[in-house]
Write a structure and sequence with these properties.
alpha/beta, Rossmann fold, 5-stranded parallel beta sheet, 9 helices, 11% strand
Length: 235
């Protein structure tokens, strides 16, 4: 069976990437594709436990602060598990895999945000993930201020809901300078690997509504899938 296709979504919290991933999954399914979705961290029993440690600010009351290196190591433990348990089996079965965050997030958040450096992150990716690379990365990069405001409003609403088991607000408490480093790192990643990373940024010429961005993503993905299918026929 031909190998499937691996697409990741990247961007700051509040960029709209999760919404767009769900919309793309629904559209691809309607087109007859087999689609598998997941998120990093999470989507495996181990990953969900790691997610509760890394994202829930309440976990610090019992575990204490997580050091940057420990944070990086836990992110990669989650990623290695999701590759073995979800991503590789789905690709082997010919599915389109849509993943909400992957190693680009670690390079941006831990490498730049926590200032651990890109080299350390990329070395971990090579060692722990066997250097698995997405076929396509969709980077949603709205203006920094807009993304931060949206993410913080959302997480404040979530944190105030006592029925929720977690608040996933740990990163959103970081200062603006932390996110400025992340935003810049994403731009550098896109410039370094323009064939893989396609940036979806707000611009004056395009429709920046949720529906407008969805249409832009559909167009890009349809073109890439057509090229991928043609290359397989020719090989």
């Amino acid at each position: 069976m031909p190998r499937g296709y691996f697409i990741t979504f990247e961007g700051l919290d509040g960029s709209g990437k999760t919404t767009q991933l769900r919309r793309l999954a629904a559209w691809l399914t309607a087109q007859g594709h087999t689609v598998v979705t997941l998120r990093n961290p999470g989507s495996t029993p181990l990953g969900d436990r790691i997610r509760s440690i890394l994202l829930d600010s309440r976990s610090e009351s019992t575990l204490g602060p997580t050091t940057p290196l420990a944070e990086m190591a836990l992110m990669f433990a989650d990623r290695a598990q999701s590759i073995a348990e979800v991503i590789q089996p789905a690709l082997a079965a010919g599915a389109i895999v849509l993943c909400d965050r992957f190693t680009d997030s670690s390079e941006a958040y831990q490498g730049a945000g926590r200032q651990l450096g890109s080299d350390r992150i990329l070395s971990m990716h090579s060692a722990v993930c066997n250097n698995l690379q997405p076929d396509l990365t969709l980077l949603l990069l709205p203006p920094l201020e807009a993304a931060l405001a949206r993410a913080r409003r959302r997480n404040q609403r979530h944190a105030s809901d006592q029925s929720q088991p977690t608040d996933e607000n740990r990163f959103e408490r970081e200062p603006d300078a932390f996110y400025a480093r992340i935003h810049a790192a994403y731009q550098q990643i896109a410039a370094r690997d323009p064939n893989r990373v396609l940036t979806i940024a707000n611009n004056d010429a395009g429709d920046n509504s949720i529906d407008g961005i969805e249409l832009r993503i559909r167009t890009l993905v349809a073109e890439r899938l057509a090229t991928y299918a043609a290359d397989r026929r020719d090989s």
